[in-house]
Amino acid sequence: MEFQPFKIIPIGYVRKDDELHETFIEILPEFAEAVEGLREGDWIKLVLWFHESDTPARRKVLKVHPYGNPKNPLTGVFATRSPYRPNPVALYTVRIHRIYDSRLYIDWIDAHDGTPVVDIKIFVERYDCPKEVPIGEREAHIEMGRMIGEMNIIPRKSEHLDELEEVSPEEYDALILEIGPKTTTLTAKELKDLVKALKEVYDSLPAEIKDKLGEPGC
């Protein structure tokens, strides 16, 4: 099999300030706009390139002793977090404590100062901590998803309605609701109650504010 190389470029670097005991991600200027939307307190996924393990010899290591302890049996690298692997990619889940210019101050991680950052993705519980949920990914109408502030509202696809005659509104899960990294589902009954509650809140707004907003849905 002939391997075709592909290009990965750093979008920033891990920086360690030992005197201040701080760890931060320094985003390169050309990628600064990509930080917009991240907030202090957000959890993110960091994809790093362990450049110090990027050698022909280390890329050929397919089995290691987990945690570097020879007392542990040799194990395939795909079943470990070892930096020795065919492609030395590292993955961390960290929290942003502070954002200053193009620096993201995060939790301490064991990556070395100067480690290239390949990508940053927002942490989403539904993807990153999968569990049994009433609405499977195939049933989620992703294209109809709406973001409102920190909320992401994803409705369920309206298919197989002929099979729902015996299903009550209390049993039918209607949508996925993501608030920040947290995910929950709402039944049709809960959705109706939420819409009613939101309408009451909207109706109680000062008239001056409602006049500026226009009619709901406009």
TrEMBL record:
Keyword Transferase among record annotations: yes
Coiled coil: none
InterPro entries: TrmO-like_N, UPF0066_cons_site, YaeB-like, YaeB-like_sf, YaeB_N_sf
Any single biological process term in GO: methylation
Transmembrane segments: none
Entry keyword set: Methyltransferase, S-adenosyl-L-methionine, Transferase
GO molecular function: methyltransferase activity
Pfam family, one: TrmO_N
Protein family according to the UniProt entry: Belongs to the tRNA methyltransferase O family.
Protein name: tRNA-Thr(GGU) m(6)t(6)A37 methyltransferase TsaA
